[in-house]
Design brief:
2 domains; mainly alpha; 219 residues; Endonuclease III, domain 1; Endonuclease Iii, domain 2; single chain; elongated
Length: 219
């Protein structure tokens, strides 16, 4: 199979200009109240849909929107609230543990620091990137399955691993679009550049994208 050719810098600039024109302030689909609930929601979203997490956290965040309140609930109560989410036992354990660590090491605040975030239970590079981007405005990019697909399929940032795609994107995305690139690409992959059949006929970057053959409009 032939390798996907890479987009030129001018094409990348045009791509993000179009994304910005269509949605100047893109938002993620997880529901959260503050930085702490954002962190918890992202931890819970691993191997789960945003929709399922939102349903589970509505009642949970209503009674526990700080590390202190969450730690006071205890693991069993958190489990009861998130039972409909995959891997809920391990996630409940991590939520309680990270809440306690935030209290003990960070005064109950979410650290604006990758190393400190990744030291929290259940928090990996992708989760840290999401929190740094949304809570603190850093131009980080969290590569999930959607973004990995878009990076490779379009020729924007071909790579064999999520980290390889992420590092390419950090180099290639124009600085003016760095803060929102994460959401534009994920939402594009989720709703337009779908895994099985990309909807090329309604794609705003179809003429730039290297994917061939283009999927025709349904008849």
């Amino acid at each position: 199979m032939a390798k996907t050719s890479r987009l030129r810098p001018d094409e990348i600039e045009d791509m993000f200009h179009r994304f910005h024109a269509a949605s100047p302030e893109p938002k993620g689909e997880l529901h959260w109240i503050n930085d702490f609930t954002l962190l918890v929601a992202v931890v819970l979203s691993a191997q789960a849909t945003d929709e399922s997490v939102n349903k589970a956290t509505k009642a949970l965040f209503a009674i526990a929107d700080t590390p202190e309140k969450m730690a006071a609930l205890g693991e069993d109560t958190v489990q009861d609230h998130i039972r409909t989410i995959g891997l809920f036992r391990g996630k409940a354990k991590n939520v309680i543990a990270l809440s306690r660590q935030l209290i003990e090491k960070h005064g109950g605040k979410i650290p604006d620091d990758r190393e400190a975030l990744e030291a929290l239970p259940g928090v990996g590079r992708k989760t840290a990137n999401v929190v740094l981007n949304i809570a603190f405005g850093h131009p980080t990019i969290a590569v999930d399955t959607h973004l990995f697909r878009v990076g490779n399929r379009t020729g924007l940032a071909p790579g064999k691993t999520p980290l390889a795609v992420e590092l390419q994107l950090l180099r290639k995305v124009p600085k003016a679009y760095g803060r929102h690139a994460h959401h534009w690409l994920i939402l594009h992959g989720r709703y337009v550049c779908k895994a099985r059949k990309p909807e090329c006929w309604r794609c705003p970057i179809s003429d730039i994208c290297r994917f061939r053959p283009k999927t025709p409009a349904p008849t």
